[in-house]
Each structure stands twice: as structure tokens, then as C-alpha cells.
């Protein structure tokens, strides 16, 4: 059972999942492994980590394609070359076409740095602070055609502190993401 993880940047959520797979023996227990890390950016820091771990990496540069659909086609081809049982979006900063989502629906996860359905979209930490939220957090959900929406698998809550900054709040949320994403993936493995 191959897991393919999509990143666009540092890939700290991808790394947390890779470490959980190693630490918790996903291969022996579930016949599952992180088979590939795919990025839309050749300079994504997470690619170096994946390569150090001996994990296959692919880069599909969205700027090299004339349309969103053409990019998604190439992205799906790169993903499918690893026969994925599960596709995990982890800090993947591209909006996917309905055709791509339909291709993987039911085996496509995302993590979003807010307590969905609150604050879909970008700049979630700044918006939570500006709204005066006392709590904020992260959500792991099944991806559907509607952006940052879909069946929720895991959530984590963090306090918003007085005079909090978006950066401090983001770091507090990210720590929780690294807990709930590996847990959400692990919970799915027996059923894959
Ligand atoms: C972070 O803002 C995280 O909250 C969101 O994607 C961004 C990068 O995460 N999920 P990662 O370090 O690339 O996993």
C-alpha cells in the first residue's frame, strides 16, 4: 500500500508522516510505506529530506504547463507511477481541478491550518487573531471539489494568546499538525 505525499515547501508535515511510518513500523504492520514525495516546486526544502530517507521524489513544475488542467494531468501521471493507495497533500499550495479531485476522491487527504469550517483559504492565523478567536487549530480532512472542505478526520485546538502574532500562532498550530496528520493517516491504513 503506497502513500504518495505532495508538498510545495519545507515539508514538515511530510517529514512527520515519514518519521511516524518508520517509528511505528507501518510497513510491517500494514504493508504501507511512503513510496514517493511529489512537489510542484524544484526548490521545495522537503525534497532533500525525502531523498535522505531514500524516498523517490518527483517535481512537476506548474509553471511549465499551459493550463491548470494540463498541470493536474502531469501531476496525476507522476503520482500514479507510484501506484498510490493514498494521496496526502501536506503544505501543497496548489488548488486542484475537480477532475484531479475526482480521480483520487476517497483516498485524498489534506491538512488545513484552521478549525474548519472556520477560515478556509489563506492567512488563517492572522484572520483568527483579527477575529478575536480564543482558540484556533488545524484540521485533517478528505479533499472534495470544494476548497478546504470535506469530511473531517482529525482536529487539534490551540489557544490564541493575548498579543499573539501570526507567526507564533502558526508555529503553535504546526506543532499540532505534526501530531494529528500521522495519526489520521495511520487510522486509515488498515482499511486501505
Ligand atoms: C504550513 O503553514 C502548514 O500550516 C500548512 O502548510 C504549511 C507548510 O507546511 N499545512 P509544511 O511544513 O510544508 O508541511
Distinctive features:
7 strands, binds 5-O-phosphono-beta-D-ribofuranosylamine, phosphoribosylglycinamide formyltransferase activity, 7 helices, alpha/beta, 39% helix, 192 residues
Describe the structure concisely:
The protein is built from seven helices and seven strands.
Summarize the structure in words:
This protein has 192 residues and is an alpha/beta fold. The protein is 39% helix and 23% strand. The protein has seven helices and seven strands, in the order E-H-H-E-H-E-H-E-H-E-H-E-E-H. It has helices spanning 12-23, 26-30, 46-52, 68-80, 98-104, 124-130, 166-188, and strands spanning 2-7, 33-39, 56-59, 84-89, 108-112, 135-142, 152-159. It has a seven-stranded mixed sheet, sandwiched between helices. Helix 1 packs parallel to helix 7 and helix 6 packs across helix 7 (166-188). The termini are close together. 5-O-phosphono-beta-D-ribofuranosylamine binds at residues 7, 9-14, 90-91, 111, 113, 170, 173-174, 177. Belongs to the GART family.
What is the N-to-C order of secondary-structure elements (H for helix, E for strand)?
A: EHHEHEHEHEHEEH
Helix content: 25-40%
For the biggest sheet, the summary is: 7 strands, mixed
Which whole number gives the mean pLDDT? 97
Structural class: alpha/beta
| Heteromolecules bound | 5-O-phosphono-beta-D-ribofuranosylamine
Q: Roughly how many Å apart are the termini?
A: 7 Å
Q: How many DSSP E strands?
A: 7
Name the beta content range.
15-25%
What gyration radius follows from the Cα positions, in whole Å? Answer: 16 Å
Active site: 112 (proton donor)
Pathway: Purine metabolism; IMP biosynthesis via de novo pathway; N(2)-formyl-N(1)-(5-phospho-D-ribosyl)glycinamide from N(1)-(5-phospho-D-ribosyl)glycinamide (10-formyl THF route): step 1/1
Keywords: Purine biosynthesis, Transferase
Protein name: Phosphoribosylglycinamide formyltransferase
